[in-house]
Amino acid sequence: DYFAKDGQFWGQPIYDWEYLKAHDYSWWMKRLGFSLQCYDMVRIDHFRAFSSYWSIPGNAKTAREGRWVEGAGMDFFNCVKTIFGDNAPIIAEDLGQIDDGVIKLIADTGLPGMRVMQFAFLDDYDNLHLPHNIPRNAIAYTGTHDNDTAFGWLYSVSPEIRQRAMRYCGFDGDNWNEGGYKAPAVRAMIRTLWASPAMLTVVPVQDLCGFGGDCKMNQPGVPEGNWAFRITSESLEQMDAKWIKELNRTFYRSSI
Questions:
Q1: What Pfam family does this protein match (any one) (predicted)?
Q2: CB 3.0 to 4.6 Å from 129: which of 48, 63, 120, 254, for a disulfide?
């Protein structure tokens, strides 16, 4: 696991997939239907589990003690298509340990996958998360709730990775460590991602404000102290709406 060396151990029971399949996944279909009534788009977290999932015994001490079990696969998504149509606004969170089975399932479903910019600079230029490698049918993020903020990330990575990222984003200044609402290095990252082919780009509000790691949303593998960040009205008022609007207009990511 990228975020925890022993994996993430949640202690949750596994779905009874045989029972669910026998009932055409009706529980899942009701759950998805309600979510789609509430939100413009729904992201299926841990999508790779529909290909195969990591099953951990109830008495295990760490997540390392599990095994891979075949998931529901395309049988599940055929039910989704039957009920919600071929173009249901669903995102597949295909991050983590991705194998050929997951890649094939993504292709078979036609759902957009995810790319995360903070994962882009860990190796060479064929990295799938680099903006120029992102396909059209993908949702691209500067970072998700599990990542550090972009500014916090710049501080936490090695100088080599930070320099690689800044070169890629065309940022050659020595003021990468300036945070706040006009943080220049964070803006360079956002602009570079906006120029990618991705059908949709997403930036956490913390990155639009140039906030540091103390404002990150979640620390994977840690059960307490998460999801406590709240944006204030004062912070929203100080955000550079003009810059955001111009960015969206430049890269055709807004109808305004």
A1: Glyco_hydro_77
A2: 120
